[in-house]
Design a protein that fits this description.
Length: about 170
């Protein structure tokens, strides 16, 4: 029963993320709310999802324990226990991609970068709120997928889906 509840919680959160994404797109659109509200809401909802699915566990372990947790689950445990490694792996991917984007934008010269690196390069460190919103975005915090920080911020700003006609 313990195992099934956690699976149900994960599915519920994934299903809730679809209507929440629609509400974020319509009600919290760039035309209706401030950029800060648009950035803060995914982070808050993502943290609520983490707490709902994993309880206090997700707040007690940092990303540095990812390898240890994998090892522990693989070699020590013989029965099912809550698995928080999925969200941790997604967070590690996001932090790593962000670090490479910052390196490309701050250290490398433009002529050393390919087209994708030029597009994703960051010239400055994101604010804490932007970072938390990116890492804990409710649609990807539990199982992914990974997206680049610049793509996420374009989505937040409402410029990601603008076509040639400006709509």
């Amino acid at each position: 029963m313990y195992f099934i509840i956690f699976q149900i919680n994960l599915v519920v959160c994934q299903l809730l993320s679809l209507p929440l994404a629609y509400l974020h797109y319509t009600i919290l659109s760039p035309a209706n709310v401030t950029r800060t509200t648009r950035i803060a809401s995914p982070a808050i909802i993502g943290l609520v999802f983490c707490y709902f699915c994993f309880g206090k566990t997700v707040f007690l372990f940092s990303m540095g324990y990812l390898v240890f947790i994998h090892w522990y689950r693989w070699y020590i445990l013989t029965t099912y226990s809550i698995d928080i490694t999925g969200p941790m792996m997604v967070a590690v991917q996001k932090v790593t991609v962000l670090a490479f984007s910052l390196h490309d934008g701050k250290v490398k010269k433009s002529d050393e970068l390919n087209d994708i690196q030029k597009r994703e390069a960051l010239r400055s460190v994101p604010s804490v709120l932007n970072f938390l919103s990116y890492v804990f975005h409710f649609q990807s915090v539990l199982v992914g997928p990974l997206c680049f920080y610049t793509d996420y911020m374009s989505w937040i700003d409402g410029t990601a889906a603008i076509g040639k006609d400006g709509k």
